[in-house]
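Hey team,

Filing this mostly as a record. A colleague (T.K.) asked me to run one chain through the structure pipeline before their review meeting, and I want the input and output archived in the tracker in case anyone asks later how it was produced. No errors, nothing strange. Just documentation.

Input sequence:
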Amino acid sequence: MVSKIPASIRYNNPGAMWGGNALTRKWGETGHIGLNDGLKQGNQIAIFPDKIHGACAQFDLWRTSKYYHDKTLKAAITTWSGGNWVDEYVSFIEKHAPGINANTVISSALLSSPLGIAFVKAQAWHEAGQSYPMTDAEWSQAQSIVFGGVPVELADDPQPLILIGASGNAVSKIQHYLGVKETGVYLDNSETKFALQLFQVRNGLTPDGKCGQLTWAKLEPKTT
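Output structure:
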C-alpha cells in the first residue's frame, strides 16, 4: 500500500529537495528516492535523518544557490517548479507569508529574518500539501544553525543547537547534566536557563543560554 503521508514529511525534507548533491550531503542526507509525480520529469527527493537537518538544507539552498538566491520570488519559483503552476505557487506563498510578493528578492537578509521563517514554512506547506509538522522553535533552530555561525560539522553531530523554546530528549539530557529537574522543555527565565548560563560562566563560555557545540563539549562526560 502506498503511504498517504506526503513525501516531504515522510523523508524529513520540508523543501522537497532533490538529493545526491554536495548541499544535501552536507546536511546529513542518508539517501534519495525517485518520485512519480505524473510529470515525467524524473523527480526524486533527498532523505534526511530528521526535520531539523532537512530544514537546514532548505534554508541553505535558498541562501547559496545561484538559481534562487537574490532572485525575485517569481523567478526563483519558476526555476524551482520547472515552470509548472508558477502563479498558483507564488500566490500560495504570498497568502501564507504576508510581506512577501512575487517581486520580493530572496536575499540572505530576508532568509535570516522572521519573514524568512514564514517563507520556508509556506514553501514546505505547499510542497507537502498541508501544514508542515514542525514547531516554530524547530524552524528557528534550523535558521539559527544556518545563519548563526554554528560550525558545519553540526550536520554530522547528534547533538543539536538548543535554544529557548526547544523540547525533547536533548533538553532532558542538558537538564540531567546540569542537575536540574528534567522536564524536557527549555523555557525562558527557567531553572534550566539560569543553570546553563552559570555553567557557561564557570567554563569560560559566553553565557547566552544557548547550548551549541562548545557548551555540549563541556557538558558531556568525557569517555576517554
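Quick notes for T.K.: The domain at 158-219 is CATH 1.10.101.10 (Muramoyl-pentapeptide Carboxypeptidase; domain 1). Confidence is low (pLDDT under 50) at residues 151-157.
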